[in-house]
């Protein structure tokens, strides 16, 4: 019995900042942002959105009435947790009205957390084939105003329903992983923003890819020409391309061109959103599946997950017969197109807003489906303002 991703969706806030405007404002050449880094727009959230609202909004697009009874676990991969103790998954479980006899928890290892959650889900479903696991990768990639990483910021969540006999992508048992204790990007408990060694993070990403890719090749015998596409963790869209290019001399020119074309399809959404940390690889996968005109059922996709610190994994999946029917291409593209552009001044003001702390209260209104409507006694209260676009069951 094959296990894998049965449903797949993402959610991003309805505001964005244009990268030309940011570059001009910061005194940089816009070509650096668009070409050197490969980012065109940055998703921006309001203060009444957090990883819980993003995750609930992404998941509510794929969770059907029947799923609520069949989900045994809600796992959230994140590095933007809102509480040192209580897991966001518990609140999302409540907001989505999942049956009570379920496990709900968070996993953390920088951007790798979503992949850890996905594989944990797969192992559970292998032994409980009539049950489902809801995996959410939800994050706010924030480096700070005018910081080195600012141009790579982003916000959003991806939700995946993991089941037996999946209708989109099987996940194979062929992962290769790597752990190396490296300080390329980390965020001490006291700090709102991460500490980043940009050049080290870039080189560690590429070296980690080469290591897990070559190890995978040795173990499985699969070469670049055996893949219909490769999908990467995308901290900014130039990054995955550099990693891919670093191994392309292992194949001929025709395969190089083909894999680079698929890579371009996998970064279309990320160019307009930015880094989603745990969700980035899966936003790339959605972009690939929804924008490629050449992929078809039975195709083999390779996935590279990277979390600073550093843990990485390479694994494969096969596209299932009829997978196109279960994609949400139109509504995803509508969500991207319907966003409102903000000025740099608006971005700076919205980015700097904070929820009340130390027991203070505040109330909010919103036009985003799930949002925070008040904070009181250090508890965030959530409300569903509008229905999210429902997905077919
Ligand atoms: P920087 O100093 O702003 O940029 O840092 P740069 O000077 O290195 O330039 C970037 C590229 O733009 C270069 O291209 C320049 O040549 C080019 P490259 O040589 O690398 O191919 N460039 C131009 N191109 C066209 N026209 C121009 C122009 N000027 C320059 N006029 C950096 C960039 C990515 C380091 C910074 O933004 C940063 O620190 N970002 C955050 C860290 C990051 O994303 N690292 C990626 C790997 S780590 C990772 O993936 C994990 C992560 O997701 C976190 C987690 O796991 O939780 C981040």
Number of strands: 18
Helix percentage: 25-40%
Query: What is the overall shape?
Result: globular
Q: Hetero groups bound?
A: 3-hydroxy-3-methylglutaryl-coenzyme A
Report the sheet-strand fraction.
Answer: 25-35%
Please tell me the overall pLDDT.
Answer: 97
User: Structural class of the helices, strands and pairings?
Assistant: alpha+beta
Biggest β-sheet: count, sense, barrel?
10 strands, mixed
- List the total number of helices: 13
Q: Which oligomerization state do the chains in this entry correspond to?
A: single chain
Radius of gyration: 20 Å
Taking pLDDT < 50 over at least 5 consecutive residues as the criterion, the unreliable ranges are: none
Distance between the termini: 22 Å
Binding site for (3S)-3-hydroxy-3-methylglutaryl-CoA: 29, 143, 242, 275
GO molecular function: hydroxymethylglutaryl-CoA synthase activity
Binding site for substrate: 148
Domain Hydroxymethylglutaryl-coenzyme A synthase C-terminal: 180-248, 261-353
List the SSEs and their pairings.
Layout: E1 3-11, E2 15-18, H1 19-26, H2 30-37, E3 41-44, H3 51-59, H4 65-70, E4 71-77, H5 88-95, E5 103-107, H6 113-127, E6 132-141, E7 154-164, E8 169-171, E9 176-179, E10 185-186, E11 195-196, H7 198-220, E12 229-232, H8 237-245, H9 253-266, H10 268-271, H11 280-291, E13 300-307, E14 311-319, H12 329-337, E15 340-342, H13 344-352, E16 362-363, E17 370-376, E18 379-384
Helix pairs in contact: 1-2, 3-5, 7-8, 9-11
Bound molecules: 3-hydroxy-3-methylglutaryl-coenzyme A.
The site of 3-hydroxy-3-methylglutaryl-coenzyme A has 28 residues, from helix 2, helix 7 and strand 13.
């Amino acid at each position: 019995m094959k296990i894998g991703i049965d449903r797949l969706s993402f959610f991003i806030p309805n505001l964005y900042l244009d990268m030309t405007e940011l570059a001009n404002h910061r005194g940089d050449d816009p070509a650096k942002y668009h070409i050197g880094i490969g980012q065109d727009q940055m998703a921006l959230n309001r203060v009444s959105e957090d990883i819980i609202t993003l995750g609930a909004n992404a998941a509510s697009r794929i969770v059907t009435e029947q799923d609520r009874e069949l989900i045994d676990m809600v796992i959230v991969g994140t590095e933007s947790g809102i509480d040192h103790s209580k897991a966001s998954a518990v609140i999302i479980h409540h907001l989505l009205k999942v049956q009570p006899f379920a496990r709900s928890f968070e996993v953390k290892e920088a951007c790798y957390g979503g992949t850890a959650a996905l594989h944990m889900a797969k192992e559970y479903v292998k032994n409980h084939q009539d049950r489902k696991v809801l995996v959410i990768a939800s994050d706010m990639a924030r480096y700070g105003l005018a910081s080195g990483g600012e141009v790579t910021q982003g916000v959003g969540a991806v939700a995946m329903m993991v089941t037996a006999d999946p209708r989109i992508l099987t996940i194979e048992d062929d992962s290769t992983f790597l752990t190396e204790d490296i300080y390329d990007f980390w965020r001490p408990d006291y700090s709102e923003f991460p500490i980043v060694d940009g050049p080290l993070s870039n080189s560690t990403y590429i070296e980690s890819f080469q290591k897990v890719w070559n190890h995978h090749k040795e173990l499985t015998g699969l070469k670049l020409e055996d893949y219909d596409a490769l999908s990467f963790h995308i901290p900014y869209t130039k990054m995955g391309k550099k990693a891919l290019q670093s191994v392309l001399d292992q194949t001929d020119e025709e395969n190089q061109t083909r894999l680079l074309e698929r890579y371009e399809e996998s970064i279309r959404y990320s160019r307009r959103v930015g880094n989603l940390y745990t969700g980035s690889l899966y936003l790339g996968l959605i972009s690939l599946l929804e924008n490629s005109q050449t992929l078809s059922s039975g195709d083999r996709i390779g996935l590279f997950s990277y979390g600073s610190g550093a843990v990485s994994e390479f694994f494969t999946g096969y596209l299932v017969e009829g997978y196109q029917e279960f994609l949400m291409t139109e509504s995803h593209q509508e969500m991207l197109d319907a966003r409102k552009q903000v000025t740099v001044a608006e971005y700076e003001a919205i980015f700097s807003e904070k929820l009340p702390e130390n027991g203070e209260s505040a109330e909010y209104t919103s036009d985003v489906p799930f949002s925070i409507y008040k904070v009181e006694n250090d508890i965030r209260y959530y409300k569903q303002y509008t229905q999210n676009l429902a997905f077919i069951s």
